[in-house]
Amino acid sequence: MELKSNHASPVLTDPALISKSRLGIHSRLYPQPGAAFSSGMYITIPRKKPGKFDDVRSNDWLDAMKSSSPPRKKLLKDVNIEVASDDFDAAYCSWMLKYPSALRSFEQIKNYANNKKIVIFLDYDGTLSPIVDDPDRAFMSKSMRSAVRDVVKYFPTAIISGRSRDKVYELVGLTELYYAGSHGMDIMGPVTNTVPNVSNTVPNGHPDCMKSTQQQGKDVNLFQPAREYLPMIDEVFRTLVENTKDIKGAKVENHKFCASVHYRNVDEKNWPTIAQCVHDVLKDYPRLRLTHGRKVLEVRPVINWDKGKAVEFLLESLGLSNSDDVLPIYIGDDRSDEDAFKVLREGNHGYGILVSSVPKETNAFYSLRDPSEVMVFLKSLVRWRKKEAAGRS
Ligand SMILES: O=P(O)(O)OC[C@H]1O[C@H](O[C@H]2O[C@H](CO)[C@@H](O)[C@H](O)[C@H]2O)[C@H](O)[C@@H](O)[C@@H]1O
């Protein structure tokens, strides 16, 4: 792990990104100019060149695994500095000069958002629910659910998660918002009649986009750009379950268009074993790639689609893209959320807010420490919008 020296404070660089680039398994794929859309009506999702997998011991998989979601104490040991807790707090405060707290900057955000239509995008794990050892018990608190329910009353809102869409819907339990599961590869969005005329538009007529009716009778659009990978993911999931069954603490989840291999509860001495196991399985699937999340290895299709693309897709579906009157706000804690932060930053359109209690490199603009601060921020947005609405009437 490296310390980035041109920062005002020690900021952990992400060995996962370094290792992924060496292995050719970048979290952001290579868009092929001109290939993204074959016509005004259809997009072609470009396939990235398959990555080459080396032996895990000779590459940085393990570094990446060790650095993902480190506990505070471990983090200090990893960077090899004897830092007292006070010093760590100082480092965090210093980092916050670059990524200010969205709570302390609320006035500034409000001023910028004034008269704009705010669209809220929320990640789930680590953002709406705290990180816990058992992924099946990552529940959202009642107060968080109520805060999100209020947000939905005032702002178009979508949850974009690495989990399957069904699972995240089950955990959130609110019907009034949009859901994107499998890192954005399974989107349930609004039905729109928008005629596509810009390169990032995905029309209703796209073969991966289908009209469907929700249980509540509402018409929605389902967009699943990795549909063809369904059987492959299912097969890989079953193989991963079988091959990791003797590794104590390992857990594999099937998220329909991607799969997760958790090692949070695996003894660190067995991390090379689990890494090797995933590596050996993926060797036979050049159309799949691997990304690193918080103590989780994520197996995904090699397509140019991620949470950033999902944000663009949803904004377009809502008829809210390319407008100066729209302010998208994306709140997330993980590496996969960086794709969305990057879209907002590069488009100079909206704010990414990173949820982190440790300094991290990010494409976000603002920060929040943990899900409890996320809740305060969401409530503040609602309070402000309510007051504004009352003032107008
Ligand atoms: O995009 P997200 O909604 O943040 O989903 C990313 C991963 O979240 C879950 O794993 C993470 O949270 C678990 C529960 O707190 C934790 O035990 C695990 O270590 C974290 O990585 C989910 O289980 C994964 O499948 C998602 O990929």
UniProtKB/TrEMBL annotation:
<dbReference type="GO" id="GO:0004805">
    <property type="term" value="F:trehalose-phosphatase activity"/>
</dbReference>
<dbReference type="GO" id="GO:0005992">
    <property type="term" value="P:trehalose biosynthetic process"/>
</dbReference>
<dbReference type="InterPro" id="IPR003337">
    <property type="entry name" value="Trehalose_PPase"/>
</dbReference>
<comment type="similarity">
    <text>Belongs to the trehalose phosphatase family.</text>
</comment>
<comment type="pathway">
    <text>Glycan biosynthesis; trehalose biosynthesis.</text>
</comment>
<dbReference type="InterPro" id="IPR006379">
    <property type="entry name" value="HAD-SF_hydro_IIB"/>
</dbReference>
<dbReference type="Pfam" id="PF02358">
    <property type="entry name" value="Trehalose_PPase"/>
</dbReference>
<keyword id="KW-0378">Hydrolase</keyword>
<dbReference type="InterPro" id="IPR036412">
    <property type="entry name" value="HAD-like_sf"/>
</dbReference>
<protein>
    <recommendedName>
        <fullName>Trehalose 6-phosphate phosphatase</fullName>
        <ecNumber>3.1.3.12</ecNumber>
    </recommendedName>
</protein>
<dbReference type="InterPro" id="IPR044651">
    <property type="entry name" value="OTSB-like"/>
</dbReference>
<comment type="function">
    <text>Removes the phosphate from trehalose 6-phosphate to produce free trehalose. Trehalose accumulation in plant may improve abiotic stress tolerance.</text>
</comment>
<dbReference type="InterPro" id="IPR023214">
    <property type="entry name" value="HAD_sf"/>
</dbReference>
